[in-house]
């Protein structure tokens, strides 16, 4: 599949990236907000456990959806599109995104853990703790997964910043999108490190600091609808090839 994408025209690549980017965003929003955001009650382990068990299929669907590797496809295509701008920075951005996706996949274990802990068929170990302790442990796993998301966003923030810089330097995509994406990356990084260093401050900044993240939606829509300027992409690709 990777070989086929690499051989695809830049305009089609851009439109595939835009479509998959939108699907990736919808998958994340569904899992994070429509599922966990409605089932997990902050500070209430009993209510959270009840919601998860009463909506187990929906909860499992949320985990399954976020494991579909849509963002990996976006990462690969954007690397192919932006490689002519600067191969080294494109590779660095690619690595940041891959690391972020890997951490996200591992973090999904913490989303599955409450099901294992709360399930009546979890095994003999369930007899060693009370129902209240199981509920508390399940909520602890979900709280840890939120910290895992902050770690993921460090790498995705760096990725967005680098992609924004590459788009700004390119001749085939609007520079304003590059600026907006770079700002979004800085905001992601700020949000994560503030959450690590000063949680009280992070609570006041959230969710306003994530508003610039809408630049990702702008990029996805532009790629889907407008694509890239193929002539300029080919010109920049030729110049890069000659320098190498």
Task: Explain what the structure shows.
- The protein contains 11 helices and no strands.
- It has helices spanning 2-6, 10-39, 45-54, 56-67, 70-82, 87-118, 131-169, 175-197, 199-205, 214-225, 230-243.
- The chain has one domain (2-243).
- Helices cover 81% and strands 0% of the residues.
- The protein has 244 residues and is an all-alpha fold.
Which features would summarize this protein structure in a list?
244 residues; mainly alpha; 0% strand
Biggest sheet layout: none
Shape: elongated
- Give the quaternary arrangement of the chains: single chain
Level of helix content?
over 70%
The total domain count is 1
Unreliable spans are none
Radius of gyration: 20 Å
Please state the structural category. Answer: mainly alpha
What would the average pLDDT be, to the nearest integer? 92
- Helix and strand string, N-terminal first? HHHHHHHHHHH
**Proportion in β-strands:** under 5%
Q: What is the number of E strands?
A: 0
Terminal CA distance reads 27 Å
Tally of helical segments:
11
